[in-house]
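Everyone, study these two lines:
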Amino acid sequence: MHLPQFEGPFDLLLFFIERDELEIHDIPIARITDDFLNYLHQMTILNMEIASEFIYVAATLMRIKAKMLLPRYEADDDGNQTDTKEDLIRKLIEYKRFKEVCEDLHPFEDERFKQEKRG
């Protein structure tokens, strides 16, 4: 296998990708698959070990790309993962509750101001 930005076996390619030394967006999975299929066609006897290694690496590359499409999580103060979208929704709901309570308390505030002006 030979790509312009990397030359070496699949396991080393995967190692660099997982360590973020090689951007996953720059690895064309379709091209890797075509190169490997051409290599398999040139083999006189199918080597099951090489074929199974390719399936493993291709599946791992697809998993990495799929994870990049999922929402990102941040850690809270306790180190637990939190979804920033869920946090935003939770804050908006809390803000709405406080705003409704303030509107409910507003008549009491007006009443209190009327009482102070008499004195």
Q: What stands out?
A: Residues 84-118 form the longest helix (35 residues).
